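Wait, mind explaining this?

_____
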Amino acid sequence: MAESNESSLKMMDGVPVIELVNLCKSYHVGDMDVPILKSIDLSIGQGEFVAIMGPSGSGKSTLMNMIGCLDRPNCGQVIVMGKDVNTLSDPELAKLRGLEIGFVFQNFNLVPRLTTLQNVELPTYANKKEGVDARKKAKELVEMVGLLDRMNYKPSEMSGGQQQRVAIARALINDPSLILADEPTGNLDSKTGEEVMEIFSDLHKKGRTIVMITHDPDLAKYADRVVYLKDGVIDNN
C-alpha cells in the first residue's frame, strides 16, 4: 500500500469520481457556528481505494456525509462524477446519490422484515439504471457474496458477517461509481471483519472506487492511500 496525505492525485482516464474544492462545513449550535471541516481539497480517482482516518471529532463522519451527498457544504464545492452538488435540486441530488453511490454502514441498516434478496433489490425501487433486470442482478450479487443459500432469510436469521455481506451486495445493485464504507467491520469479530475486507479488496481489484472511514490501521492497509483528518483539516504531517 502506498500511503499519502496529498490532496491531489493524477487521475485515471475520465473525470475524478469525487472532487472536493476548498470545502467548508459548519453547524449552527445555539448562537454559534461550529466549524467542522475547513478548506478541504481532495480528489479521488477512478478505481482508487482511499481510507479516511482521524481521531474522534476530527470531522470524518461529516466528510463522509459530504462525499456521499448526504449534506451540502457551507462553502466550496463537492463535485461527483463532474456534477457540482451545489447546482443540483434535492430530487436531482437524491437521484445522483441513488445511482452513483453505494453505502455500507457499520450497523448494516437492513430492513428487518425483508429477505436477503429483497434487501439487496431495495435501492432499485427508488432508482434503477435503464435496462437492468433488478431481480436477476440481485440474485447475482447475493451469489457473489456467498449467500445464495440465505437468499430467503431475514436479517434476524443471519450472523453479523452475513448481514454485512448483504449490505455490500445492496450497495452494488445500481452499479455505482463509488462505494462508501463507514467503519464496515466495527460490529464484527476480527475473523469476520477480515472476510468482509477481502470482499472489498476483491471489488477494488475489479476496478471499484472505494472510500472507507476507519479508526483501525490494519484495515487502512487494504487501501491505496490514507487521508488523515485532524481538527477538520487534512493533516499533511
